[in-house]
Amino acid sequence: MKKILLWGGLLLLLAVLAFGLFRSQQGQVNVGELAPEFTLESFSGETYRLPDLRGKVVVVNFWASWCESCKPEARDLEAAYQYYLPTGEVLFLGVDYVDTEPEALAYLEEFQVTYPNGPDLRTEISQAFRIRGVPETFVIDKSGRIAHLQIGPFSSFEEILGIIDPLLD
Amino acid sequence: MVAEIGFGAIFITLIFTLYGIGAAIYGDRTKSQRWILSAHQVLKLVFPVMTISVGSLLYLLATDHFEVVYVADVSSRSMPLYLKLTALWGGQAGSLLFWSWLLAGFSSAVAFRKWDRDRDLLPWVIVVNLVTLAFFLVLNVFYENPFTRYWQDASGILVSFSRPEGAISVFPRDGGGLNPLLRHPGMIIHPPMQYLGFAGFIIPFSFAMASLIKKRSDDRWIRLSRGWTLWAWMFLSLGLVLGARWAYDVLGWGGYWGWDPVEISALMPWLTGTAYLHAVLIQEKRNMFKDWSLVLIILTYLLVIYGTFITRSGLLSSVHSFAQSRIGPIFLVFLTLTILVSAWLLSSRWKILRADHVLEQVLSREGLIIIGVVLFLGMLVASFWGVLFPILSELVTGQKVTVGPPFYERVAAPIMGGLLILMVLCPLAVWSIVSYKHLGRLLWKPFLVSLAGIALPLWGGYNRWPAVIAFWLVAFVLAVNFFEIIRRTRVRRKTEAESWGTALLHVLKRNQRSYSAMIVHIGVVLMALGIIGIEFFQTETQATLAEGQQLSLGSYTMTYEDLAVFDAPDARNVARAVVSVERDGRVLGELYPRRDFYYDSGQPVTIPGVRSTLLDDFYVILVDWKAVTSEGATFKVYHNPLVKWLWVGSLVFIAGVVFATWPGKKTNPRQER
After folding, report:
1. For residue A41, what is the enclosing H or E element?
2. Which residues lie below 8 Å from residue B319, measured CB to CB, with a gap of 6+?
3. CATH number of the domain enclosing A77
4. Rounded Cα–Cα distance for residues B649 and A131 (Å)
5. Range of the domain at A119
6. Which of A2, A66, B298, B549 gives B545 a disulfide partner, CB atoms 3.0 to 4.6 angstroms apart?
7. Which residues in chain A are closer than 8 Å to B252, comparing Cβ atoms?
8. Beta strand pairing call for A117-119 and A90-96
9. HSE-up of residue B671 (Cα within 13 Å, Cβ side)
10. What are phi and psi of B113, to 5 degrees?
């Protein structure tokens, strides 16, 4: 009996690792692919459905309050959001990955983020995009295809503009 | 040409290892000393041949050979020579080569020891070492070749080791440069130490496996591998401490340990390695725990491979992860085989490992050590669960749920408390029996002195009760050790009529092992002091200041004086603030928090300004700034009480381990069997 438990346990562990490896090998959704459909309910209660946003460039930023490397880009993202706000052509959506609401709200307040942000409930959105960590940002063009995938933080406000501007022409 | 030499050396080593494995197994099966001797020679040769390969890559890095993909990825012209050389472990392919080289180093070193008495173990020590080395070489040859080059043909840029037909060489003008987070003195030593620790455990693992394969029930393998284990464990400990220091200095979040999956993966073999070093004491003194010792050392090595697999396969995301790589599946195959073979060997030999004695008293020294081992294993189970949980939850429920630092902290805090209590009792407890009277007699004086550990923090304003208890335990451990040294020195002084100094020196020399353990434990409690300080009493604040404005935190006040943005000669744009710091109205000096932006890699790195004393650290991070306008700069400021003791304790800890491994007269607790 003990032996069965030992071998069963070991095989189960290896199976779990194999599954994890299989998922991680799939990688993120690729540039050029249609962005997966998702619905984000923001902390303030509004609902955003990706299919409803066709015709706009959508910037989906995955972050978390515990994520140190998300912090350097938080202000740049907000500045870019403010920059495009008058045009009405670009929508920024923050997806808060595996987090607690009080910490997340404190983070948004600390970095004065005003664009819509909401929790990734049941990690559905991050799984759909198959993200591998935070921060990761997907820029979706007006036709709903992924135009740019940013792994890790943006290094500057200008870098974000350099990616979005060509999509608006 | 140099790339060809480098790759050729890896390939030749791989052929050597495959031959060596075959020769050793055949030699053991046919009892042919000639074949075993031949395999033995191979084991001696792997390191020199691998050195040619590592030397080639170092040469290519140092001389800016950007036609080599690895060099172009991790190096750049603007980097100083020492960074170009450390770029050897700055990426996946190079660090795997470095790993193979260290493994080869340990394997060759063990080949040069005297084997006359242990001829029966030799073939299997060779096999285990060479199989592991062969696996890493396969990774370098077929998956992550650090000598692959850029080529160009009509279809565009190609990546290949050998020249594709009709293609010409491409020589990029510059490389992408090393990740800026790795351009730090701590990073020059942290990865090699970590790798030395990881790779070093191959030796005790190979002795343990050889002993199991040969169905030996004695503890010869422990004696043979004790020194190697201690060194590996010291390197692993150093790696962890240096990693913590690097995080504190570079990551700019005011902490030293983030319970990141990869940190935990490095901690897990350390936990089992530490448990093993304690378990073998019982095996040596009481001939108990033979089975546990084997399980623990095998588990340690499996956890090394498991941690490496997690870090390099892209299974978990972390600051330490390497870019997604193709090595995941083959790594999983190797891990599976290693686990299954080890488990099969252990389960089939379990009966011959039965102990000669049973545990008689829980409060005897062996009883207390067993409790310690259980506590280490408890932390291991929690860590393992925490790392595996996201994958498991995704498998079962379809959603990934991660466990954060609070989970680990809730488990680690009581375990640390338990270990501190054991460190109070253990030095005074006796093997196999327990005498409460004896314990009480030795405990009451240290107990009275340890009350200062309650009074002092309360006087200093540190009044959270879990912290006060922890401070008291720290003081108690220190007092027990101090009184114990004094007591033994006094006895020696009386019996030998020596001066205090001479008597102390003799006492320390006479039982090097026991006193080195004492020094290690003192190091640990000093580290605990730093951890308690920062975990319980860290405070922070953030503000945007105009020049001349002030910010206060605790008794400190800082004034934002100035900010300069300039280009440094090593292709770095530096934004450097000057802040002056005062405490209770007294000016203490200036700090220079800065943010470096590396042009080659396009990445920033934050370097805090820190004023560090034994009482506390004042830690300033430059978060943001407006270069031209007078809007000022944003600072995040941390006050980290006692954190310096974490580093002081680490030094004491390492000194203890070095003392333990130092060649000298060592007492032999039990005659070898």
Report:
1. strand A39-41
2. A69, B181, B251, B260, B262
3. 3.40.30.10
4. 40
5. 30-168
6. B549
7. 68
8. parallel
9. 1
10. -75, 170
Is residue A160 within 8 A of residue A138, CB to CB? The reply is no
Number of domains making up chain A: 1
Tokens of B198: 């990881």
The chain B residues in contact with chain A (CB within 8 A) are 251-253, 258, 309, 313-319, 321, 324, 328-329, 332, 335-336, 339-340, 343, 347, 388, 391-392, 394-395, 398-402, 404-405, 542, 597, 602-604, 606, 623-624
Position B301 scores a pLDDT of 95
Q: Which two tokens stand for residue B314?
A: 């892209």
CA–centroid distance for B511 within its chain: 27
* End-to-end C-alpha distance for chain B, whole angstroms: 54
Task: Flag if A27 and B324 touch (Cβ within 8 Å).
Answer: yes
Q: Which of B119, B329, B83, B85 is nearest to B210 (CA)?
A: B119
Q: Does residue A83 fall inside a structural domain?
A: yes
In a domain, A80, yes or no: yes
**A19 within some domain:** no
Nearest to B624 among A18, A23, A75 (CB): A75
**ipTM greater than cut 0.85:** no
Task: Return the pLDDT at B398.
Answer: 65
Least confident of A129-143, B69-83, B298-312, B589-603: B589-603
**Cβ–Cβ below 8 Å for A24 and B347:** no
Q: What are A53's two structure tokens?
A: 């946003």
Cβ burial of B60 (10 Å; 0-12, 13-18, 19+) is buried
Q: Quick check: B664 pLDDT over 70?
A: no
> Among B258, B394, B399, whose Cβ lies nearest the Cβ of A23?
B394
Percent of chain A with pLDDT over 70: 97
Question: Is B343's CB within 8 Å of A7's CB?
Answer: yes
Query: Between vectors from CA B397 to CA B396 and to CA B401, what angle results, nearest 5°?
Result: 100
Query: Residues of B with CB below 8 A from A14's CB?
Result: 332, 335-336, 339
Q: Are A24 and B313 an interchain contact pair (Cβ–Cβ within 8 Å)? A: yes
Nearest alpha-carbon partner for A26 in B313, B413, B141? B313
Whether pTM exceeds 0.90: no
| Spatial distance between the Cα atoms of B217 and B229, rounded to a whole number of angstroms | 20
